[in-house]
TrEMBL record:
Record-annotated Adaptive response protein AidB N-terminal domain positions: 13-161
UniProt family annotation: Belongs to the acyl-CoA dehydrogenase family.
Residues of the full protein shown: 15 to 528 of 622
Location of the Acyl-CoA oxidase/dehydrogenase middle domain: 171-283
GO molecular function ontology, one term from the record: acyl-CoA dehydrogenase activity
Domain Acyl-CoA dehydrogenase/oxidase C-terminal: 295-451
Species of provenance: Polysphondylium violaceum
Cofactors required: FAD
Alphabetical keyword list: FAD, Flavoprotein, Oxidoreductase
Protein's recorded name: Acyl-CoA dehydrogenase
Amino acid sequence: REFFQQQSPLLGNQFLEDSALIEGLKRVLPQEVYSSIQPDLVQFGDRVVKDILELGRQSENNPPKLIQYDAWGKRIDKLVIDESWNTLKDIGATEGLVSIGYERKYREYSRVYQYIKIYLFACSSAVQDCPLSMTDGGARLLELHGSKELMQTVYPHLTTRDPKQFWTTGQWMTEKAGGSDVANSETIAKEITGGQCQDNGAGIPTHFVSGYKYFTSATSSQGAMILARDTDAQGKSTNGSRGLSVFYVQLRDKNTGELNNIKIHKLKNKFGTKAVPTAELELINTPGIRVGSKGRGVPVIASILNITRIHNVIHSVSTMRRCVAIARDFAHRRRVFTSTLNENLLYLSTLAEMELEYRAGLQFLLDVSLLLGKSECNSTKETDSLLRILTPLSKLYTAKQSIWVASEAMECLGGTGYMEDSDLPRLFRDTQVTSIWEGTTNVLSMDVWRSIKSHNSLKYYKDSITARISASKSSSSSALFETSIKLINKALDLIERTSRQVMEEGDLQFAESN
Ligand code: MFK
Ligand code: FAD
């Protein structure tokens, strides 16, 4: 007997099928820029559902392993990484997923181009966008604070398209005593005197760094930017976050490939992001080079945070779009009672709510990417203030909404949506972390409040929304656009309410008078 066989949902070209994206890009990019990058987005939109998706699935099914000891009991801390993960990294280089932002061929529009490519890539890549995001942040940190030497030795490796030369870098802040509140960091850095240390590929180390880092994603990277407490010749240090500086550490010896005075104690047993090697590790007099000013570690590393938080937006919006794409296609293929799901109003209203959240997220993503590009190429007070508020605001909002959309998408596919090989559990797990890493929702609410107080950013933001709404009245797609704006305003309300809870009396008076 032949039983009923349900057709599976299919994914087409993820650029060409994304009408909201095409419309949004035409809104923010000049015509000549759009025409120039469109063929590349078309080819990549196809690739991300073909070889890249297959590599992503292979990475997910073959997570990293740590071999701590060899047969003779010698500590080796060898990371075993599946070849698919390394291939995804190579693809990241050749497709320019970091370099596009630094080649700046399209001036302030380069970031939009770069980030839309990563948006297409993220959900197929087993979260390879995580190390790429930190590499992007590392390159920006070096551009802003790196010495001439680091710009010559490390920066070119982070921004190249040649996979043989390409390095990724991590961002190691979190310790057992503090992830949100890094003021409790226990890792220390001792100045190196008298030429005790040789150039290890990045230049002559300035400090020995020692401490225990509780979460280090991208442990297979070549380098890391580390937060550590500066000590003077007598071993004295300053308490709190103002005693912290940033150090660049080269993870492995350039000749032997062995870890440079680093012990990997364990790989984290995570709910999601299974392919990403996230470890707990110890630095034991690891040679490092101080980057930026002494005691300015938090503002210096914030130049990474402000980039990786935008990548978080990219990942969240990418998840929403992928979930909607799967659920929409399924609606054409699944029959319930008397009709297919795409003819069922109740089902369609669920899809519409998901689509709306996705579109609001996309507006955030396009806006914040464009602002970043403008701020880097032609900084103004208004651009910088808007970027300063929109980065944490869009991160915290899209993260929360993507978790909701991914959960709905599972339900949209019925029982099969709960099965591992439907891809939806992976999408759900991977996006759940977007509200935790790179600053939790509460912590980012406080960052929004910090930006309102020090940059007057709320005024600029409200003005920009008002201008957008009046401009959209003359546009053909104004109804949908206005709905998206309403959702963005909903995010702003959330922020205002949350911020109120963390305000002190003086802050409250400040808020009332604004
Ligand atoms: C796939 C997509 C993404 C992939 C992600 C990759 C995986 C990585 C995973 C990670 O999670 S990495 C670790 C992420 N950790 C965090 O996000 C830490 C969250 N905690 C915060 O953000 C806290 O708010 C913070 C650590 C910044 C608080 O530190 P402090 O020292 O108590 O803050 P304070 O005193 O308010 O600010 C110190 C200075 O930094 C101030 O400047 P000034 O000294 O000049 O006044 C602040 O203005 C500045 N600052 C703080 N946040 C800033 C900033 N400047 C610019 N931008 C910011 N966001
Ligand atoms: P805590 O800071 O202890 O927070 C606990 C709770 O308290 C949270 O709900 C938080 O919102 C709340 N809270 C904290 N402060 C306040 C406040 N002032 N007001 C109200 N509520 C507050 N870190 C790195 O440095 N590098 C990495 O590569 C890295 N990779 C990671 C990978 C994964 C998969 C995960 C899950 C985490 C990773 N992290 C990494 C760590 C991550 O950044 C931290 O877990 C996160 O910043 C929260 O810190 P915490 O875990 O110490 O929680």
